[in-house]
Amino acid sequence: MAHATSRHQYDRLTERLNRFPQGASPSDLLFKILRILFSEREAELVAQLPIRPFTVQKAAQVWKMNEKRAKLILDKLAERALLMDFEEKGEYLYVLPPPMAGFFEFSLMRVRDDIDQKLLSELFYQYLNVEEEFVRDLFTEGDTQLGRTFVNEPALIQEVGATLNVLDYERASETIKTATAMGVGMCYCRHKMMHLERACEAPIDICMTFNTVAEALTHHGHARRVDVAEGLELLDRAYESNLVQFGENVRESVSFICNCCGCCCEALLAQKRFAVMDPIHTTNFIPVVDSDNCTGCGKCVKACPVEAMTMEESGKKKTARLDAKLCLGCGVCVRVCQTDGALRLESREQRVITPLDSTHRAVLMALERGKLQNLIFDNQTLWSHRALAAVLGAILRLPPVKRVMATEQVKSRYLEKLISRYS
């Protein structure tokens, strides 16, 4: 009976996680992971928390306890990066992050002795790489995905005289320069693989977080705060290691950029396994091979993290060949090519659309995954009018077809009138 009761609380926590667009597929492996990260009591309490950021007062109200006790619980969860805490406009707020990108990664962003990181790594590997349902749902559901690829900036520098239209938000360096805060921690993916004795030689202390997320993680020691100069140095180190910049799929206030390898990192492994489903948003660029100039050295093939480049025989000559369906447009191959005129980046025929910010992306993802009602009607606690207005405002900025989808899904007369007013 005790085991059944324990499992029930973690099942409730799983249901809470799945109210957000980035959820977690229920399974015995997930139960084991959550049991390592959360106590049974914590699972019971966290399952009741709202989706949007909330105050101590709100948590106390939901939990039916005094504010002092609620704050102690919230702070302990934040210290272990199971909750994020931050200050906004003079108000201290908490929020439950999704599993990924969220508290799964945070659990391995530093060496810790309060949890069994080796066991956790083994469970993560089984849950993400063997069971596969979670990573498939995370990266292939809907048209709007969690992450996007940043273009390799040294590859752009080589394009002398090219007419590439590169916007600021497409550059990782611009994210670093404009962030209000930046933190660096251990790469979750390579740290996990270290415990499985499968890690590569790529740098491990190179996982970048920004803005509010960086403030929270550095405050509690899960990441190390760095300035712009060191951030750009770390980015250069990532370039030198031929790592791909995989970051949050937004134009403004990016919260993370991972420097990914093709052998350890979940996003690039997903790209190789589910490329046909577009698990990662590509850049607006694509490499083009000039077969007349290509010497067939194979450096681009070796450097490509998603195996989009291969060598093909053409008479007595070998030349590089690109599979555009696999290609992320990262430009790593262009950077390593040392033959003038053999490989260059060109703009894609159709630009990739990137959501404005995290609210806009969450609404799009919720629309596509049938979870919009969870963002608007959060029964666990009341939202502020400001938060509700932000969500509705994002809906009203959507194209007409997606506004129709929102109306059909929510079935709210108020929302129907609001949308029709702005149509």
Description:
The chain starts with a helix and ends with a helix. The strands form four sheets. A six-stranded antiparallel beta sheet has the order 3-7-8-5-4-6. With 423 residues, it is α+β, with helices and mostly antiparallel strands. Helix 10 packs antiparallel against helix 13. About 2% of the residues have low confidence.
Structure in a nutshell:
The protein has 423 residues and is of the alpha+beta class. The chain is built from 21 helices and twelve strands.
Task: Give a topology summary.
Blueprint: H1 2-17, H2 28-37, H3 40-46, H4 56-63, H5 67-79, E1 84-88, E2 91-95, H6 99-106, H7 117-131, H8 133-140, E3 147-150, H9 153-157, H10 172-178, E4 182-185, H11 188-195, E5 207-210, H12 211-219, E6 224-225, H13 228-240, E7 244-248, E8 256-260, H14 266-274, E9 285-289, H15 299-303, E10 309-314, E11 317-322, H16 332-336, E12 343-347, H17 358-369, H18 372-376, H19 385-396, H20 400-410, H21 413-421
Antiparallel strand pairs: 1-2, 3-7, 4-5, 4-6, 5-8, 7-8, 9-12, 10-11
Q: What are the salient characteristics of this protein?
A:
12 strands; about 45% helix; 21 helices; alpha+beta; about 425 residues; two-stranded antiparallel ribbon
Instruction: List segments where confidence is low: pLDDT < 50 over at least 5 consecutive residues.
Output: 379-386
Biggest sheet, spatial arrangement of strands: 3-7-8-5-4-6
Shape: globular
Helix count equals 21
Please indicate the percent range of residues in DSSP E strands (runs of 2 or more): 5-15%
Helix content: 40-55%
How many whole angstroms does the radius of gyration measure?
A: 22 Å
The number of strands is 12
C-alpha end-to-end distance: 55 Å
- Content-based structural category: alpha+beta
Major sheet characteristics: 6 strands, antiparallel
Mean of all residue-level pLDDT scores = 88
